[in-house]
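tokens incoming
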């Protein structure tokens, strides 16, 4: 039976199983849903067993439990791989509830889309993987060993995952990790995510006099902490080249492969529309790179917040005693966020002007990730997407961060293929989250064809 026929024959069951997960409000950040987290894990256990896993266990952690399923190919060959499929069963809160057009915990199909919390992120996308697996097992075509690991804390930063991976390295050992929790450029422009940026974040405190001072009595004689802070932050980026001036910052930055730059150039993008959409009249950034390269493949520095002194209504002629800023760097693969974090501390401390005391506090960080596009697993996913969507998927790095992907590589020593099927209009994390049903079914076909090409 073809995969298209299998989907057609079992479509009603597929949708009902998907709905059974959505109806469980597995909101990890709200304590009142603690029992729902276990119920959702147990439901996934049932569905994985029904799909063909030979064993599925619910494993405890410091937080919500993990679901681990496994399938061993009965007739392995020298080309048989062990593939670990990662997903998460927790979802974001649904508030503001009044903005939903239907019950977020009861799937509603309208105009070819399924609306509900978790329709895409990540119950819908994980279901794509499970149904492709089910078909391959049912048809006797699964020639690889498959493992599933589903967590219940992704939406709160996966606080238990790193320790869980370290404690269960043997259980999770694999050749490749496969994740469907990312997006495509568009319904007619499929893509595979080939990179994610890392993150480093700090708070800066600049202290001058021991109290706020009258600007008439002391202005011009005492260093103003806000001015000192601005002077320091203005020395982080070269205004001519857009390059970050922290010593050693680019030492480990890998160049973008020319083949990948060529694929990025094929991504539909209109600079004027981009500027108009966000209300700017001129883009900027590191010289020598396009906007799409700057916001995904190259590191960046941003002042995320700055405050101090009097900001209330009216005027108050005050020279403030303190000034603060929150700053961040998006990092790229191979940059060590711990080293970058310390370099920022050292640099800002060194360039601080006389007359103030500076404290730079690292807050959090994570590593970036790149998937080589010549990786056999990537090539198999690329062929699968091509056969399902009728066009070769573009390689597209994303500017955001998913630190767990770098944790997988660091601890297990394997690469991850990011084969996501979300669309921007799916509105994940927002009211009226949805999934395009045509894309969802094509996703099942794409994963099936990936296995056949692997």
């Amino acid at each position: 039976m073809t995969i298209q026929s299998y989907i057609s024959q079992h479509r009603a069951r597929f949708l009902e199983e998907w709905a059974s997960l959505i109806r469980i409000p597995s909101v990890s950040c709200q304590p009142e849903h603690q029992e729902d987290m276990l119920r959702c894990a147990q439901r996934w256990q049932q569905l994985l067993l029904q799909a063909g896993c030979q064993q599925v266990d619910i494993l405890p952690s410091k937080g919500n439990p993990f679901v681990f399923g496994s399938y061993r190919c009965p007739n392995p060959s020298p080309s048989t791989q062990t593939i670990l499929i990662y997903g998460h069963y927790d979802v974001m809160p649904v508030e503001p509830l009044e903005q939903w057009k239907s019950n977020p915990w009861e799937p509603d199909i309208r105009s070819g889309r399924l609306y509900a919390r978790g329709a895409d992120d990540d119950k819908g996308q994980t279901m794509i993987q499970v149904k492709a697996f089910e078909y391959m097992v049912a048809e006797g075509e699964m020639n690889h060993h498959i493992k599933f690991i589903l967590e219940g804390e992704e939406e709160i930063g996966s606080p238990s995952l790193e320790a869980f991976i370290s404690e269960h390295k043997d259980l999770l050992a694999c050749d490749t990790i496969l994740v469907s929790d990312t997006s495509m450029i568009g319904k007619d422009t499929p893509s595979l995510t080939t990179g994610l940026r890392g993150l480093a974040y700090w708070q800066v405190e600049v202290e001058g006099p021991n109290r706020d001072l009258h600007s008439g009595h002391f202005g011009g004689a005492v260093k103003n902490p806000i001015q000192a802070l601005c002077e320091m932050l203005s020395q982080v980026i070269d205004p001519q080249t857009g390059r970050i001036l922290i010593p050693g910052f680019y030492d480990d930055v890998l160049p973008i492969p020319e083949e990948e730059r060529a694929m990025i150039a094929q991504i539909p993008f209109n600079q004027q529309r981009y500027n108009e959409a966000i209300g700017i009249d001129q883009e900027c950034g590191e010289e020598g790179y396009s906007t799409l390269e700057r916001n995904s493949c190259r590191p960046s520095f941003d002042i995320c917040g700055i405050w101090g002194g009097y900001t209330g209504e009216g005027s108050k002629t005050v020279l403030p005693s303190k000034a603060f800023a929150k700053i961040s760097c998006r990092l790229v693969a191979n940059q060590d966020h711990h080293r970058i974090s310390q370099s920022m501390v050292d640099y800002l401390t060194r360039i601080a002007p006389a007359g103030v005391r500076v404290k730079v506090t690292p807050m959090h960080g994570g590593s970036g990730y790149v998937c080589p596009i010549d990786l056999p697993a990537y090539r198999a996913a690329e062929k699968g997407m091509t056969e399902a969507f009728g066009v070769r998927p573009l390689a597209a790095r994303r500017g955001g961060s998913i630190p767990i992907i770098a944790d997988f590589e660091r601890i297990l020593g394997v690469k991850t293929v990011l084969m996501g099927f979300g669309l921007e209009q799916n509105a994940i994390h927002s009211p009226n989250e949805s999934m395009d049903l045509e894309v969802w079914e094509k996703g099942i076909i794409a994963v099936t064809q990936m296995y056949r090409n692997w």
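note: The chain has two domains: 3-196+368-453, 198-253+299-366.
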